[in-house]
Each structure stands twice: as C-alpha cells, then as structure tokens.
UniProtKB/TrEMBL annotation:
<dbReference type="Pfam" id="PF14691">
    <property type="entry name" value="Fer4_20"/>
</dbReference>
<dbReference type="Pfam" id="PF07992">
    <property type="entry name" value="Pyr_redox_2"/>
</dbReference>
<dbReference type="InterPro" id="IPR028261">
    <property type="entry name" value="DPD_II"/>
</dbReference>
<keyword id="KW-0560">Oxidoreductase</keyword>
<dbReference type="InterPro" id="IPR009051">
    <property type="entry name" value="Helical_ferredxn"/>
</dbReference>
<feature type="domain" description="FAD/NAD(P)-binding">
    <location>
        <begin position="124"/>
        <end position="389"/>
    </location>
</feature>
<dbReference type="GO" id="GO:0004159">
    <property type="term" value="F:dihydropyrimidine dehydrogenase (NAD+) activity"/>
</dbReference>
<comment type="subunit">
    <text>Heterotetramer of 2 PreA and 2 PreT subunits.</text>
</comment>
<comment type="function">
    <text>Involved in pyrimidine base degradation. Catalyzes physiologically the reduction of uracil to 5,6-dihydrouracil (DHU) by using NADH as a specific cosubstrate. It also catalyzes the reverse reaction and the reduction of thymine to 5,6-dihydrothymine (DHT).</text>
</comment>
<dbReference type="GO" id="GO:0051536">
    <property type="term" value="F:iron-sulfur cluster binding"/>
</dbReference>
<dbReference type="InterPro" id="IPR023753">
    <property type="entry name" value="FAD/NAD-binding_dom"/>
</dbReference>
<protein>
    <recommendedName>
        <fullName>dihydrouracil dehydrogenase (NAD(+))</fullName>
        <ecNumber>1.3.1.1</ecNumber>
    </recommendedName>
</protein>
<feature type="domain" description="Dihydroprymidine dehydrogenase">
    <location>
        <begin position="8"/>
        <end position="108"/>
    </location>
</feature>
<dbReference type="InterPro" id="IPR036188">
    <property type="entry name" value="FAD/NAD-bd_sf"/>
</dbReference>
Amino acid sequence: MIEDYLKEEVGLTPKDAMEEASRCLLCLDAPCSQDCPAGTDPAKFIRSLRFKNVIGACETVRENNILAGICARVCPTEKYCEKACSRCGIDKPIHIAKLQRFITDYEACTKMNILSKMEPNGKKIAIIGSGPAGLACAGYLAKMGFFVTVYEKYSKAGGYLRVGIPEYRLPNKVVDEEIKKISDLGVNFIFNTAIDSNKLEELKKENDAVIIATGFPKGKTLDIFNDNKKVKIAVDFLKEVKEKKGKIKLPESAVVIGGGDVAMDASLTLKKLGVKTVTDFAYEEFEYFKASKDELLKAREAGVTILDGYIPVKATKSGVCTFTHRIIDSKVQIKTPLIILAIGQTYDLDNLGLSIEDFNSSDYRIKNTNLFFAGDLAPLDKNVVYAVRSAKEVTNRIIDFLKEGK
C-alpha cells in the first residue's frame, strides 16, 4: 500500500493537453486571469498552448508564478481561476491546473532555464523560513537584484511543501526542482539554523530588510484531547509519514477530526497506507466544507466515511470519542485506536520575541522597523497560491520602503 502513497497521479498527455486547451473560448477580458491570486495569467498561457507555442506558455507561467510547478499540483483552482472560467456557463471549466502542470512538467523535462535576474543592487535581504512564502519572496527579490539569504531551521528547504503535503499530491522531487530554480538565481540558504530574538536583532542590523515567513507550523488542539496518547496532530502525522516515505505502523481503523484540506490529506493518506476504516468528523456541513471539492471527492472515492456537522464533546484515554451534531439532535460515540486532529494551525512567534499584534496587515510591515512578513502571517487565504501573491506584494513593499528610506 506504500506504493499508493508514493505514486503521483498521471498528468495530461500532449494530445490531451492540446484538446483541453482547444476548449478555451479565448476571452478578450479573461475572467480566469483576473481571479488568479498569484497573477499566473491562465488565459495567456492557455492561448499559447492552444497555438502550440509551448515555450511561450512555459515563459508566461514561470515568469508570473515562481512556484508554478507546485501550484499546478496543490492550488484549489476550483475556488479561483476555474470558478471564473467562462465555460462554466456552457459545460465545465477548463482544467487550468492540469494544463499548468503539463506546461511545468514540459519545462522540467526539457530543462528550460526561464528565470533571469537584474544586476546586483547592493541591497541585502534576510528571510526567515523556506516554506512557499519564503521561497517565493527569495525568488522575486533575487530577480530584482537583491542579495538574499534564507534561514531554515531544518536541514532542507521547503517547509510545509516538503513535510506536510502528501507525496502523492506533491512529490519532493518537484519541490527540489522548484527550489533549484530559486537557488540558481543566487539565493543563499543557511540550514539547521533556528532564529531567536537575539539573532533577529542581528539580522535587522546586517540587512536592509528582514522577512518573517515562518507560516502556521503549530497544529491546534482541544482541551478534551490533552495528554491523550491516542491523539496525533494532523500536521505532525503528515510530516512523519512523508519523512518515513509511508513506512509507519498504523491500526486498522482511525478517526480524523476536521473538514479542511489537511483533514482530507490525513484521511486519504490513511487509506492509501492500508487503514481499512477511516471516519472523518467535520464541523462544517458539506455545503460549507473548507476542503477543495477535488480532495473531498478523492477521499470519499477511497472509502473515507465523512460525517458532517459534528463536534467532539468528550474523549477518554481509552480512545472513546463522543460527538454531537451542531444542528440536529444526534450523538455519535466511537472507539478508535487513533485520532488525528486537523482543526487548524496557528503561528509560533514566541522564539522571535514578536507579537502578532505588531503585524500591520495593510503593508506587510512589523511596527516601524525593517521587518516584514509574508505567507500565512498575512490576512489572506492560507494556501500556496496566496503565499505567492503575498510574496509579490511584500517584494513591492520592500522596494518602496528602501526608496523612501523609511
């Protein structure tokens, strides 16, 4: 069953990609491009692909989205560009994500080198964290001629991309390819280095600007699960599975609590690793589910039982968990050897000596300092495509900040 976890879904063939691109209506004022948070410009790259200009399509995708290969696999396009597609009123939207994956796979196979950088401008930027926001910031700033150093507490770059998203959705080889493109721009990575408040003060003095891109690394929990050995936090579980390439011991049944993409990742990972009975309890009813429809569908097709509208109210150390429905008069009690909590994540700024109240959401700046932030710490959707958007915006903000000198 480990093979199922490690095996990525097959992408489009050239014939399939061209046929899908030919469905595009070539809208003059393309709504799909207007609804891409990262400004990837699907209309332009689909038009290029449709007229067999694959190299032009690659250039459009990569220049506009520095993490294009990753976004092609994990972006919830149904909520953004595909939702806006004009074909929705006719039959079904263009499979924009699949076309973007075809293009970035072609780019990787042909070893295209699209990204280039401007002459060095003499300015230094330090970035704390090498998740999607940190990587995107590093790439965009390096292209603009900045000398960029990324500090990462682990031994490899990638953050949640590397340790949190299951291998079948995002293979680490793809993460490595995307990071190499950024490294080739001259970005310097320093690994196994955790930044504390003292080191942060040094970085502020040594650099023209410092970006905090540490994400939301801590999984949330509930008091009823405190000190319960049968409970695992979803982000920790997914990290363990990916680091061990699926070679972990699991029981025959498990319960997942949560209704977002992380909950679906945990549920489907359990099934792919051979857990026979996986039951997911979600706070939201299906109509308001936070998980992407695609991930929800895959979980259900794999045999995950999903009970929507339920909240946990009691848990025992023996694995008995009681749920009540939020609206109807219903109670469910289930005994399980493993409970995985996927009820959200939060920031961890204690080591840096920072308070979230100091973050100015209007301009990505922390107080009146040369500290900036990006990614999950910004008041945007918590996903990779919005991490790319925040990276573009904070790059522009830093350029303005250095020009203004304040």
